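Exercise 7.
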Amino acid sequence: MGVPEQEPKVKSLAKALHVLECFTVQTPELGVTELAEMNGITKSNAHNILSTFQKSGYVEKLPNGKYTLGLQFLKFAYIINQHLGYPKAVYDLLLDTATRVGEIVYFGLPYGTEILYLYVAHPIDRMRELPYRDMLGEHTPLYCTGIGKAILAAMPEKEWPQRIPAEPHRYTASTITDYGAIMDELWRTRRRGYSIDNCEREENVRCVGVPVYSSSGALVGGISISGPSQSMTDAKLLECSKILTDTALRMKDRIYR
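Solution. The predicted structure, written as C-alpha cells, is:
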C-alpha cells in the first residue's frame, strides 16, 4: 500500500544519502561496520562515504570511533524552517493552546507515509510535571498518531493507499494494523471532524488532532494535543477537539502558502 520507490538517476548519490538516513533519534551514533551492513555495501565503501561527508561537516567522528550527524544540518534546518514561515504563524497559538488545556501540543507536516514534527508547546505551569520533548525533525507514521490521522482523513481517499505502509507496524496492543480497519478509522475521523489516538503509538498516551489549512484552503499540516490516558478522558478529548479546531482556524488566517 506504500509509495512505490523509483529508480534513482544518480545511484552513487542515492547510496551516500541512504547512509545518512540510517541515523535516527534511536540510533544517533553508528560505526562503519554497522552502516556497511545496513546498506549492503563494503566497509571500504562506507568509510569513503563517511570520510567525504566528514570533510564537508555533514557527519562527525566521535572519540569512540563511531559517526554522528554534523552541525551542518542545523543550518539547513534553520533555512527550511524560516522559509516555511511557520514559526511566526503558529508557535504563539500552540503555546496559548497548551496553556488552555494543560497538556502538550504538537504541530507537524505530512511527509510521505509519516508526520514530520516541527514544533511542540508545553504548558508553562506544568513544565516540571510533563516530559519535555523537542520534536523538531522527529517523525512517526500517519496511520497511528492523532496528528497523522487528522491529516490523512483530510486528504482525498485516493491518496490513502500511498500514505499507509504495506505492513503497518504494531507499536502497542491498541495499534490498528488491518488495512480495512484503518480505512474505517479514517472515515470516522472525517465524519467526526477530529482524530483520536487511543494509545496506538505510545502506551498510556491518548491524543486528539485536527488538520490545519492555509488561507487559500490548502491542507498544510495538523495539530494535536497529547496527554496521559488517565487525564485525557473522553470528555477532555472532546473539549480539546473544540479548542484545537478554534486554534486551527486562527492559524488559517496566518498561513499563506
